[in-house]
Every structure is written in structure tokens, then in C-alpha cells.
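Q: Two folds, back to back.
A: First:
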Amino acid sequence: MEGEEPPKGVENPNVVNKYREAANIARNSLQKLLELCKAGTSIHELCTRGDKFIEEGLAQIFTNAAIEKGIAIPTCISVNNICGYYSPLPEESSVLNHHDLVKVELGVHLDGYIAAIGTSFVVGATPAEPVTGPKADVIHAANTAIQTALRLMRPGNSNYALTDAYAKIAADYGCNMMEGVLSHEVKQHVIDGNKSIICKEVFDQHVEEYDFAVNQAYILDVMVTTGEGKPRETEYRTTVFQRALDVTYNLKLKASRTFLAEVNRRFPTLMFSLNNFDDQRNARLGVAECLKHNIFYAFPVLAERPNDLVAQFKVTVLILESGTVVATPVIFTPEAYRTERVVTDEEVKKTLAVPMQTGPAPKKDKKKKKKSKAKVAETKQDS
């Protein structure tokens, strides 16, 4: 109908295009950052460079349109047993060391449509000098888990099909899935939608079961550990936050009000780091008062035990009528990690044998619009 508002989901080709543009910037930013991840480099400097790469990429697109765009997940670089959300302040930063197991994640949004990406690697690992042992095992386990999940994310499959497969894969690699890690459906300005996939179900942690459907978008997050899979809070300063939209409060400090105004302008709905602000004094004062009155959600730095290792992969997935599209790819060089462990479960092997669509979904042929439902279902199975 004339004047009717267009759909805000991925059934709208314009929305799909925004996801793809955001995904391209996320991928390019991560690839540029990985080239800088050398032994001796400051983690703080790497995090700020990652965010800078995002901002530079965004500045080159939609230049003539009044459209919101920005960081959706600030660059975080978490080493060895640290699980995530490590974006340290300059005076509290450490450096990367040779043979550290490093996890890098970041996210971009265009008009509130979010594309996130994350990878794991070992500093100095190459196909010529591959890593072996637990580091190789846990990275291969995480990669195998996300590759399996991507092939299971098809209409009609249950979210718990992924959780069940994760458990089998982790066991085969002598690892555990991490408790408390969720993958969420994402929508415009919403990074943690109600539909979710749990990495590991335990007696007090579970999600509602449902089947995947056409026209859904997800940030798929897989985290595997050589430890027990029970993350603990650390002494590292929390620097990553998100605005709680349902909470308002008249802040007392002028510095806090100034800081909150900047957050509302630059990060009204999605995540940010203290490193994204030039005035660090105002930022620290503002965060303290905002947290006191529940204006922000905090994302603390969690970790496994000191000698354990954690690997993670994160991608953005669009379930379209024409197939499942991996908008942000899995960045991994398997030849740099040599493991003697293999998948033994026959169902998982069968799933991994299915080809995975990793690029844009093919455009529809207008002449074939009148396909029968049976034919459409057949097409989905073959994609």
C-alpha cells in the first residue's frame, strides 16, 4: 500500500544491504587489525586502532544520507584464559606475547543493523610453524563448532540442535563449551533479542526451545575452553558498557551529565568502551554515577583459571528465503594449528559435509517467482 512503512527485518532487501555493508566494514577492520597483532604490541593500542578502522570505514559509506552508523561492539582483545570484553585503558594495558592465544571481536552498525565478527589465533602461528597441543585443540574445537552451527541454522531446525552438537564436538577435542555464552537474534538497534542459542546448558542455565525461520538475523557466538567452562569475574577494570534504555535519572555531577549526553548521542542503544572517549576523567566519573543508578549495563572481564585456554569465533548470520548467508566470515587458518583429535559423531560429520553458503544470496529470477512451496523448500535444502 502507498505510504506503508517498509519492513524493518531482513525480508527487506534494503535492510539486507545494510547488514552486508556493516559486515564488510567489520571484516575489513578485523583483517587490518590482525596484521598488527604482533608480539610486543600494546593491547590498548590495538583496541583503539580497531575502533579507528571501524570509524574510517563508516566515514566512506552513506555519506549523503542522514543515517546512524557507528561502533556496535568496541574492539576487545582477550588473551589466553580471558573470555572477553578486555579493552584496557592505556595505563592498565598489557602486551601480546609470542604464543599467546588471542581472541579479537568487534561490531559495526548501520542504521542500527549490527554486524559482529570475532576470531582466535596464536601469536606467531603459521602453516610453516604450526601450533600443537591444547592451543591447537581448543581453536579447532571452536572452529568445528561454529562451522557445524552455521550448517544447522536452517528453517525448521531447533536452536538446541546447535547446543547438542557443541557438546559432542567439545568432548571430541577434550574441551568444554563455556557456560553463560548466548547467541542472540538481532534486530534494528537490538543486539540481544529474545530468541537465543546457548553454548552449554546446565541445570540453572537454559533458553526456550524454538525452530529457526526465514527472515531472521543472528550474531552467532561460540566459545570453547580447555577448562571447566565456568567463567569467573576478574580484577581487571570493566570498560565496556551499554545504555539501559528503560532507566532515567537526574545525575548530580556535571561531569556525569556531560558524559551521559555524549553516550546518548554517539552510543544511544549499543555497546561502547571507555576508550571511545577523549575526556577520560569525565568518562570515569560519569560511568561510576551512571552505574550507581543502573543507567548502564556493565560487561565485566571474565576468565577461566590461569592455566586454562579459551577460544572463540563470532559471525553474523542471515537466514533468508534464498538460503543461510554468513555475512561476516569465519577467519581461520587451519593449517597453522595441528591437532590429533577428530570429530567422531556421525551426525556431526554428516552436518559438516553440507556445503555452506558464505557470500551474498543469489538474486531471485523474476521468472521463477511463482515456484510452488515444495520447490522453494527443495531450494532451501540445496543451498
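A: Second:
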Amino acid sequence: MSGTQTGEKDAGIGAVGIDVGSTATKAAVVQWGEVTHTLVVPTGFSGVDAAWRVRKELAAQGVPVDELPVVATGYGRVSVPFAIKTLTEITCHGRGAAWLFAPDGTVIDIGGQDTKVIELRAGRVCDFAMNDKCSAGTGKFLEVMATRMGVAMDELFELAAQGEGAQISSVCTVFAESEVISMIGRGEPRQNIAHGVVESVVARVVSLAGKRAGGSCFLTGGLCGEPYLVERLSQRLGTQVATCKQARFAGAIGAALLA
């Protein structure tokens, strides 16, 4: 889905949105009513360096970055020195999801350091909730557990789809990691441990979503390419969770649309 709203740049002029996350920095170029370019680079130690790398790579792809307005969002939005303005993650993820999916529904974004649930009405944010005090239920939680288990993130979800039974009761990442270590020590199959890890994240997201997730739901962020996660969220929320490849760039797309 695509469209325009009052206050957005003429789609023919175009704009660049840069979403500086704690783990990855995403960029999207919107021109002529379409997303013409997307790009993702590791944020690394410096959001400023990541922003300049994005600018250089977009220029190498033929994007006239010197001529297009740039809007920054995300965890490190103040790290983009050439941005004309900064906008909050909530605003940009909401706008990007409305453009990609539908103007009404609930956006779920599982980020590196936080998880956001955003309620949309008529394409605008009307309510939201964030889990930003603890890494449990976030991409960082999954990364820590995958590292402890000696598997890549994609493999973690593949294993989880084959497992059953194991439960992670701790909501704190440190204590949850201790549980995983204990499971490994007593010989619990990796599939079951992975299943418990993923179920822990799903439970946190469902709890955060609460009654907001009664209608259409959209998954954005770096985990939107994990079918098993989409499946489990859909089952637990009682509604089919929609996502797509471009949903990883929802924040950057929203920033570009609001230039």
C-alpha cells in the first residue's frame, strides 16, 4: 500500500529516511510514490559513522543525496549531521507501517534494544506502548541467547519450530541466560531450548500489546523475515500478523514520507 497525507513531501521530489538503530542503521529513499532504494549497515560504535556510510553507499547507487532532504529517526537519530530534522521512532514507524500495510491496525516492532506496539487510526498514531527498560523481549535478548547456544539468529528460529516443552521463566535477560546455561548443562535438546527462548519473546510482546492487538497487526523491524516468529505471534494474538520484506525499513520509510 502507498499513499500521501497532508504535510508530506511531494512524492515526485523524493526524500531519504535514515533510521539509526542500536544494532543496524536502515535507510530508505522514497521517490515518485515508491520506495526506490533501501540499505542497511551495522551501526557499530558510532551512529555518526554509520550515517556517513549510508550516505556514501546511497550516492554510489546513484541516489542524489546532496539534492534530497534527509530525515533521521531511531535510537541514534541525533547522530545524522546532514539531516534536516529528526522525528521519533513512534511517529516514523507508525507512518511507515500505514504506508506499507493499512491506515488502521497495530504495529509491532521488535528492535535491538526495545519493543514497540503502536496503535494506528486513519494512518496516525493514537496510542503506543514500549518495553525500553529491559532487553527481555527484544532482539538483543534473542542475540544473547543465540550466542549462548552457539547458533545464528536464523538457526535459532529454525530450531524453535522443531522444539517443545522448555520454558524460560525469568523476564530478566541475565537470569534467563542462566536458565539457558542450566538447560544446556542437563542435556536439554537445543530445539527445546530455542523453543523456550522464542516463546519467552512472544509472551512479552503479547503482554505489551494487550488489548491493542484486537484487529489487524503488522510486524516491522529486523525480525519480520522470520516466518516462525510471525506464525507464533499470529497464533498467540488470535489474528494474522502481516509483514513484508520492506517492513524492516518501516521507520526509514516513514521518515522519508514525513520529510
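Q: And?
A: The chain has eight helices and ten strands.
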